[in-house]
Each structure stands twice: as structure tokens, then as C-alpha cells.
Amino acid sequence: MIIRKYKPSDCEYLIDLFYNTVHTVNAKDYSEEQLNVWATKNVDLAKWNKSLSEHYSVVAVEDDVIVGFGDIDETGYLDRLYVHKDYQNRGIATAICNELEQAFEVCEIVTHASITAKTFFIHRGYNVMKEQQVIRDGISLTNYVMEKRIV
């Protein structure tokens, strides 16, 4: 597996990976209604590309297949971290997260972790600051504001 910088030509594939991962991996913790408002089929490709291009964004590639991606901004906000549904529990999220956490010289990294990802981040030394409800199209989704202090 290699970790490389994001390229705009990756964007469409990342949107599909995101959709499929959310609708399979996160299905154990969220209802179908919640999954449908979290990851819709109507994603603004230009908006995603702009965000991924402005952040430090990386993709994990194994045998010419993108198996995961993540991004962090210069303030230390870790925005996205997703691993392909068929490549779970292989250290891919760990490798991506290691790369993202080293990207900037910040004192703390903050993420909004799903119920599904909460344990992963706790094992990485993140602390839950608060549980919150995010409302999308009138549907409530639980996630956790988590932070990790970098020493």
C-alpha cells in the first residue's frame, strides 16, 4: 500500500468510496434514513474537489485501487477519513491517519467522529470532548467532537 497526495482525478472515485463505505460499514450504527442524508447520491463534485484540494488530502492505493482517503486542514481539523468497505481492518485508516496527523505543526487535532469511528480514534489517543447531534434534512445524526493533543 502506498499513501499519496490527492489528485482532482481521484474525486469521483472518492465520492463513490465514501457513499459505499457509509452505506455498508456505518449501517450497524445508523438507520437507513440517517445513512441516506449523510451520504447522498447528489454530491457536488466541484465542492468536494475544492475542499480536498485546499486541505492536505491523501489517498491510500493498493494494487492500483484506491482503498481509502482522508484530509485535514491547516488548523488541525481532520475532516474525512474513509476506507473502502472491502478493505476494512487492514491498517489503512491507521496509515492515512498517521500521515494526516504529521501534516502540520499544530498542538491539537480535532475531528467529528461517527459512532462507528469513535473507538478507532479513542485507540489513537483522542478524547471525546462532547457528543453532538448533527441535523441534515431534518434527520438527526450522532457524532462525537474528539481531540488529540500533539506533544
Task: Give a quick summary of the entry.
The chain is of the alpha+beta class and 151 residues long. Helices cover 34% and strands 36% of the residues.
Q: How is the topology of this model organized?
A:
Elements: E1 2-5, H1 11-25, H2 32-38, H3 45-54, E2 56-62, E3 65-72, E4 77-83, H4 92-101, E5 108-114, H5 115-123, E6 127-136, E7 139-149
Description:
There is one protein chain. This protein has 151 residues and is of the alpha+beta class. It has one domain: 3-Layer(aba) Sandwich (Aminopeptidase), CATH 3.40.630. The chain is built from 5 helices and 7 strands, in the order E-H-H-H-E-E-E-H-E-H-E-E. It has helices at residues 11-25, 32-38, 45-54, 92-101, 115-123, and strands at residues 2-5, 56-62, 65-72, 77-83, 108-114, 127-136, 139-149. The chain has a 7-stranded mixed β-sheet with strand order 1-2-3-4-5-7-6, sandwiched between helices. Strand 2 (56-62) and strand 3 form a beta hairpin. The longest helix is centred in the first third of the chain and has 15 residues, at 11-25. The radius of gyration is 15 Å and the shape is globular.
Features:
globular; seven-stranded mixed sheet; alpha+beta; Aminopeptidase; 151 residues
Give me the secondary-structure category.
alpha+beta
What Rg, in angstroms, do the CA atoms define?
A: 15 Å
The CATH topology turns out to be Aminopeptidase
Treating each run of at least 4 consecutive H or I residues as one helix, how many helices?
5
Principal-axes shape call: globular
CATH-defined architecture:
3-Layer(aba) Sandwich
Low-confidence blocks of residues: none
**How many extended strands?**
7
CATH top level is: Alpha Beta
β content, as a range?
35-45%
What kind of sheet is the major sheet? 7 strands, mixed
Q: Tell me, rounded to a whole number, the average pLDDT.
A: 96
